[in-house]
Amino acid sequence: MTWAAGQVSKLKVVHVARAALPWRKAAPAVSECGLELPGLVHPEELHRQIKDLGVRRVAMGTCMTCLEAARRHAYTWDDDPRRVLRRYLDRELPANYGRQKGTQLRQELAALAALAEAHPAEFTALLDRQAWLARKAATGK
Ligand SMILES: [Zn+2]
Known about the structure:
The chain is mainly α. The chain has a domain at 1-77. The protein has helices at 43-53, 55-60, 64-72, 81-92, 104-118, 120-139. The radius of gyration is 19 Å and the shape is globular. The protein starts with 42 loop residues before the first helix and ends with a helix. The site of zinc ion has 7 residues, from α3.
């Protein structure tokens, strides 16, 4: 089988959702390649397909940028919020190249800081709980 000119670029591919920020659940998901599209494949589904079919078969119908990024950044907010946040920071405020893309994350972080300042007791209690969970995970007790 040979491809006619322009045919390859018309192949429909699926894009993979980036690990989501917990406060953006109602917002449109962002793909690993940076698009806001409906119908993105969940990363867990992608990894299940790769396990079942192999990466080459899955790659035939998947955006290559999404596929590579999803394999390279296979973590969720629950795994490590810092890693997820870093990707959104890099998207909104590229360190080495590109222009700033919006200010949504900047506004969200300012709102989170304002919430912490408005509710210091709850914030401290939540931090204590996170420290307790970390100790429990480290010691198994
Ligand atoms: Zn993509």
